[in-house]
Design goal:
- Helices cover about 70% and strands about 0% of the residues.
- Helix 3 packs antiparallel against helix 4.
- The longest helix has 24 residues.
- The protein is mostly helical and about 260 residues long.
- The chain folds into 3 domains: about 80 residues, Helix Hairpins (Orthogonal Bundle), CATH 1.10.287; about 80 residues, Orthogonal Bundle (Helix Hairpins), CATH 1.10.287; about 45 residues.
- It has 12 helices and no strands.
Amino acid sequence: MNMKYKNLEELIAVIAKLRAPDGCPWDREQTHSSLRPNMIEEAYEAVDAIDDNDMAHLREELGDVLLQVVLHSQIASENGDFTIEDVAKELKEKLIHRHPHVFGSAKIDTADDVKDAWDKLKAEEKTERKSAMDGISRCQAALISAQKISKKAVKTGFEWPSEESLYECIMSEFDEFKQAKTEGDKVHMEEEFGDILFATVNLARWNKIDAEQALLKANKKFEMRFRKMEELAQKPLNEYSFEEFDALWRQAKKELAK
């Protein structure tokens, strides 16, 4: 055993033991599909720790993410598909291939140049992809998908001529939503509302803002303010008028600003 990675190797052995016939009943019955929600949940919890700059929590959550990687690899190994060693080997080879400026003789100076070179090498590897839209995950968050779709389209030259034209597009989508609502057409309303969201994601991209992170932060900010409202409330919130709610919201905002 390589003592430098003793704990990592022991972790792999622990997972194998949990999956063994005399192991844990819960672990033994897990499949790639049953573990799907866990993979997503653990990744988001790690992101929460990053946002909170909580290193102890991040260490714990990265362990939970690693658990998912090792557990999926163990299941695949039992099925004769691949092993954790195969996963590491493929990743290692990909990283070396996509960093010729580090492991080869290529000269790349800036982070943007590195990204461009990475995309070019990735395209060379993924020869089965024919459309610029290929390679977009069908399971990721809608805002993340919208950002990736937009970026892929831009790389082909499909871009708004100016930021002002993008604002005009967003406003036109609001007008179309209002028209659909006037018609009482729920299907059309949903379609136009989707267009509003997609257009605003492009506004975020134009200004180098991550739309997913922006909304996550807005969610967190709203939750914090609402919790503060609950603390400050002098009666049940469902007894507040709109004007009282507005005043309480402003008070909560002021308290949190302190």
